[in-house]
Amino acid sequence: MSERETAPRRAPAPQRATAVTAEPPWMRRLLIGVALLFLSVFLILPLAVVFAEAFRGGLAVYRAAFADPDARAAIALTVTVAAIAVPLNLVFGIAAAWAVAKFDFPGKSLLITLIDLPFSVSPVVAGLVFVLLFGSQGWLGPWLGGAGIEIIFALPGIVLATVFVTFPFIARELIPLMQDQGNADEEAALTLGASGLRTFLTVTLPNIKWALLYGVLLCNARAMGEFGAVAVVSGHIRGLTNTMPLHVEIMYNEYNLVGAFAMASLLASLALVTLAIKSFLEWRFAGAIASGPAH
Amino acid sequence: MAPAVRRLRVRAPSAIPGFGIALGYTLAYLGLVVLLPLSALVFKTAGLGWAGFAAIAGDPRILAALRTSFGVAFAAAVVASLFGLLIAWVLTRYRFPGRRLVDAAVDLPFALPTAVAGIALATLYAPNGWAGGVLAPWGIKVAFTPLGIFVALVFVALPFAVRTVQPLIGEIDRELEEAAATLGATRSRTVLRVILPPLLPGVLTGFVLAFARAVGEYGSVIFVAGNLPFVSEIAPLLIVIKLEEFDYAGATAVATLMLLISFSALLAINLLESWSRRRFGHV
After folding, report:
1. Which of A81, B83, B121, B140 has the maximum number of C-beta atoms within 10 A of its C-beta?
2. Is there a contact between B167 and A5 if contact means CB atoms under 8 Å apart?
3. Shortest CB distance from A39 goes to which of B12, B92, B102?
């Protein structure tokens, strides 16, 4: 499984293609040209627009967009949400991978399917289910409201929705890798008298650290950028429950394009940094990351 | 064969500690964060009853939104799969300057927040935008039409299509191609009869992932779609509109319909995929 998935990361030696197993040069150039044109139009152009629009009014206007207290509050909220959601899913990811990869038990494939479930649910539906649970007409909403606890239109709701949509990221990076690595290292450590915790910290953790970092990176990017699920539970209260992507939406809908694209450029930079580190990890530690195709 | 006592074991014997706590935590967290909330959707739908559900589901506006969502997502997934195959082929087989950079760029839609993609596409394809300005003299309008939804969905779906096929192309045994050439096949015949068939199951898997993602997409679409009821309104947006009107029953019904259609569509495609794997897949 992982052998198959990591295969293209190890760049094969440049193929000195013999004529019979290669396309003619004109065909090659045509295919490369079409692929690059498609990628430029669909991926690169939108990215370029973000930065072009953000700096349209010059650097001073760009910086002024971040002087807005609502913009600062949105950045602070996004960082807070990610700082809660990512560690929660990190602990879960390690526990799930330990249970699934190190042991055999009935119902394992069902468990793996359930872990992937949030990926196949629309973000809007992910937000909706929390409104049904905790909203003012929901199951637990009136009861919690009576106790003075607010979930929807407040931080806990945003965190819950974010945890839901980023739920599988770390677990699904770790599970295939730890399944491949098997139990031999841990068994050796235990035989030599190490405790379970010590075995985990000194044997397992070093084996999975790059995959762990990879998973945290992707989980964090999605947690900071999530829009649909958070839009449903946040209530768009300025300075209070607006995350960075929601701030982008509000500015855009008010025709404050510089404000919208300035914040968008910050999120786009985060995406670029994420991609750069991700590519570096794939290039440097290909064997230590079992990278799946879908996120 | 095993003694009776053994059969009571929940798991195969192992020297590794921590099974109980790891599985217990996993199940508790999964239950609280994912299954309990999703069960709220199931119970809310069941509470509507058949008549109530059918009355909401028969609303022409909802049917139009579902048609738009699934129709455009299907078209976008088809286009993403075809170009995904081409891009994966070019990235795996050919060397050209900047190949690594292009390879990394394919994952951009995974990393770029959907709201950012949405406002960028809306600006790009607006009649006075870079791309919209080029298309306008030809009478092609992209932003604020169903074509805008299509462009946004191709954007979000593309990486799924590329990344699913890419490993399979790297695995193709070159000796098969050499054998085909030795036996006198032309290159185009080799590509059609030897290379493409084993890739078909992978292309279908990529299609499934791309389609599933595209159907549920919200953030990038709403900015570029125009959101005209019966024309360019998608089902996830309708859920948000119903929620803003505090129509929880309506929102739940649309969500359930979406999930039901998605699951049946994915089931059908999965059956097709496993058939093609048996028929063509020898990898």
Report:
1. B121
2. yes
3. B102
Sign of the dihedral through C-alpha B109, A280, A83, A237: negative
Provide the residue type at A279 as one letter: S
Nearest chain B residue to A4, by CA: B167
Give Cα B223 to chain centroid, integer Å.
20
**A contacts of B124 (beta carbons < 8 Å):** 45-46, 49
Q: What is the ipTM of this complex?
A: 0.88
- State the CB neighbour count (10 A cutoff) for residue B22: 21
Instruction: Report the CATH number at residue B84.
Output: 1.10.3720.10
Q: What are phi and psi of A64, to 5 degrees?
A: -65, -30
The structural domain count of chain B equals 1
- Report if residue B192 sits inside a domain: yes
Cβ-based neighbour number of residue A125 at 10 Å:
29
**Amino acid found at A71:** A
Query: B-chain residues within 8 Å CB-CB of A111?
Result: 26-27, 30
For residue A105, give how far its alpha carbon lies from the nearest alpha carbon of chain B (Å): 4
Longest dimension (CA), chain A: 77
A contact residues 221-260, partner B, Cβ 8 Å cutoff: 221, 224-228, 231-232, 244-246, 248-249, 252, 257, 260
3-class DSSP state of A236: coil
Structural domain that includes position B66:
49-280
Q: Is residue B37 part of a domain?
A: no
The string of DSSP letters for B71-104 reads: HHHHHHHHHHHHHHHHHHHHHHH---TTHHHHHH
Indicate yes or no: CB of A133 within 8 angstroms of CB of B95.
Answer: no
pLDDT in tens, chain A (295 residues): 343 444 444 445 455 545 667 788 898 999 999 999 999 999 999 999 999 999 998 999 999 999 999 999 999 999 999 999 999 999 999 999 999 999 999 888 889 888 988 988 999 999 999 999 998 777 887 888 788 888 889 999 999 999 999 999 999 899 989 988 889 999 999 999 999 999 999 999 999 999 999 999 999 999 999 999 999 999 888 878 999 999 999 999 999 999 999 999 999 999 999 999 999 998 888 877 764 443 3
pTM given for the model? 0.89
- In a domain, residue B1? The reply is no
Q: Is A87 on the interface with B (CB under 8 A)?
A: no
What value, to the nearest 5°, has the Cα angle with vertex B64 and ends B60 and B68? 170
Do A293 and B35 count as a contact with CB atoms less than 8 A apart?
no
**Across the interface, do B167 and A23 touch by the CB < 8 Å criterion?**
no
B41: exposed, middle or buried (C-beta count within 10 Å: 0-12, 13-18, 19+)?
buried
pLDDT digits (tens, 9 = 90+) for B46-62: 888 888 888 888 899 99
CB–CB of A129 and B40 under 8 A?
yes
Listed in sequence order, the residues at least 6 apart from A254 whose beta carbon sits closer than 8 Å to its beta carbon are none
Residue of A nearest to B90 (CA): A32
